[in-house]
Inverse folding.
């Protein structure tokens, strides 16, 4: 089983992130439309299963993925709000 608490360093930044995360390009309708309900379900499942690294970018649906993640996930220590 994969340890969700194992972290890796990103380059020489000193920033450490969990080894396993959720990529959110699809939540920004990258390949096909995704409903708000489905996006909510994906985020909820990831959080319920211990995923704490949610990878998003402004280009994913022109900010849609970021909006969906922000609306449906709690603020974690060390994150900007």
């Amino acid at each position: 089983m994969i340890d969700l608490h194992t972290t890796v360093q990103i380059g020489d930044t000193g920033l450490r992130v969990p080894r396993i995360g959720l990529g959110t390009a699809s939540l920004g309708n990258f390949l096909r439309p995704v409903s708000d309900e489905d996006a909510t379900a994906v985020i909820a499942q990831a959080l319920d299963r211990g995923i704490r690294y949610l990878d998003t970018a402004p280009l994913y649906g022109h900010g849609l993925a970021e909006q969906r993640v922000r609306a449906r996930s709690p603020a974690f220590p060390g994150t900007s709000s």
User: Anything to note?
Assistant: The helical segments are 36-48, 64-72.
